[in-house]
Amino acid sequence: MHARDTERETAALRALLDLSAQLLGAHTLDEVEAVLTTTTLRLMRSRYVYFLSVTPRQDALLLTHAAGEVNPPLGLRLPRGQGLAWQAALGGPAVLRVDKHQIPDVAVRLGPAPDQHLLYAPLITSRQELLGVLTLGRLDPPFSQQDQALLLAFAHAGTVALERAREEQKVAQAREDTLLVLGLAMEARDYETQGHTRRTVQLAQHLGRALGLGATALDDLRQGSYLHDLGKLTTPDRILLKPGPLDPEEWSVMRQHTLEGERLARRVPGVTPGALQVIRSHHERWDGQGYPDGLAGEAIPLAARLFSLVDVYDALTHRRPYHEALPSQEALALIRASCGTQFDPALLDVFLQVVGWEDGKGL
Predict the structure, then answer these.
(1) Is residue 29 part of a domain?
(2) Which of 20, 156, 254, 257 has the greatest number of beta carbons closer than 10 A?
(3) What is the average pLDDT score of the chain?
(4) DSSP secondary structure letter of residue 343
(5) What's its top-level EC category (predicted)?
(6) What residues contact residue 15 under an 8 Å CB cut-off, 6+ apart?
(7) How many angstroms separate the CA atoms of 211 and 237, rounded?
(8) What is d(CA 265, CA 272) in angstroms, rounded to the nearest whole number?
(9) CA distance 304 to 226
(10) Is the pLDDT of residue 113 over 80?
(11) Which domain holds residue 291?
(12) pLDDT tens-digit profile of 280-291?
């Protein structure tokens, strides 16, 4: 083997390792497509790279990512069979190479761009399922057989990454569905609380983003929001649905729902330690007079302090067996009056902004 050939093979291997390393950090379909597009542009020295993803019914290719000098509108749709990308996808060579002087009439031209050398690499799984087509173009020099082989390797790596991301998406959705079902199971026992789970999850996420929480903390908060009342599944109806005040013995039973919820949630696959903190501690108070552990101030986990605001606000503004729904500003006035006793003052300021508190109203 000539030294020049060895250098080319070494460079190709490095390029493939570079792409593979980049793909390892991509976890969603969108991230994989973006990495595949931008990294291929750099490593293949192309003028542009497009990723065309297949629609669920496989009746069209959609332009979902583009990198380089040419930026056509994302969402561009190629019906099945139209253009060279479909020709590559429907039984052509593993990588379709087209010289700029031999572009056929069936090619789809995007604007007045000059003729370019083209490469098309379909991403096809071992089950012969089309995931998309990677498209490259450059003015000169022409793409070589080595370029073809390298793009084929890129397409294989992209296919594996997309399949992995798709499986991760399915697992995440299954977990989300499980959490929602568990939250709704609690609501099914009490018609008055229906919608509480979805509302508190949404508002807690809104507040978490306003506070600048990262992805991990937001995931903890979302899971904890779904499952915060899970322990009430073990609370007797005579206590849970009692229309009047609870006596001391009944309160003692009711307060066990945070510990029971933590115990039950530990048996749910994938529930994070941060979510367990929300379930256990969302009835703690800033002044230390809450339950189950009597934690005070910043000893209460942040997500639990945050969620307690959301939980109380939703409970006040929706009808329950023991009270009618309050107008939002009246509920916020009551919450504000508990600043520094029940609620964290710093979090309360942000919460009031998020829910649209108007100073003076409701007082």
Answers:
(1) yes
(2) 257
(3) 87
(4) B
(5) hydrolase
(6) 43, 150
(7) 37
(8) 9
(9) 13
(10) no
(11) 189-354
(12) 999 999 999 999
Q: Over 50: is that where the pLDDT of 1 sits?
A: no
**Rounded to an integer, what distance in angstroms lies between the CA atom of residue 352 and that of residue 363?**
14
pLDDT for residue 282: 97
Residue at token pair 């929300």: 278
DSSP state letter for 140: S
What is the reported pLDDT for 239? 86
The answer, yes or no, to whether residue 132 has pLDDT greater than 90, is: yes
Mean pLDDT to the nearest integer, 155-164: 92
Q: Are 83 and 43 in contact (CB under 8 A)?
A: no
205 with 218: CB under 8 angstroms? yes
Rounded-to-integer distance, Cα 291 and Cα 195, Å: 25
- H/E stretch holding 65 reads strand 60-68
Is residue 247 located within the same domain as residue 310?
A: yes
> Does the pLDDT at position 191 exceed 50?
no
Question: Both 54 and 99 in a single domain?
Answer: yes
Q: What is the mean pLDDT of residues 63-90?
A: 90
Tokens of 127: 């089950």
For 65, phi then psi, to 5°, come to -145, 145
Q: How confident is the model at residue 93 (pLDDT cuts 50, 70, 90)?
A: confident
Query: CA-CA-CA-CA torsion for 46, 68, 33, 23, nearest 10 degrees?
Result: 60
Residues 30, 138 share a domain: yes
Q: Which residues are CB-neighbours of 18 under 8 A, at least 6 positions away?
A: 39, 43
Judge whether 216 lies within some domain.
yes
Confidence (pTM): 0.61
Q: Residue 14 corresponds to which amino acid?
A: R
Residue 283 lies in a domain: yes
The model's confidence at residue 235, banded by pLDDT at 50, 70 and 90, is confident
Instruction: Write the CATH number for 250.
Output: 1.10.3210.10
Which pair of structure tokens corresponds to residue 140? Answer: 């000169």
> Do residue 119 and residue 267 come from a single domain?
no
Task: Tell me the angle at which helices 196-210 and 215-227 cross, rounded to the nearest 10 degrees.
Answer: 160
Amino acid at 301: P
Structure tokens at 330: 């009246």
pLDDT on residue 2: 55
pLDDT category of residue 363 using cuts at 50, 70 and 90: very low
181 lies in some domain: no
Token pair for 16: 């493939």
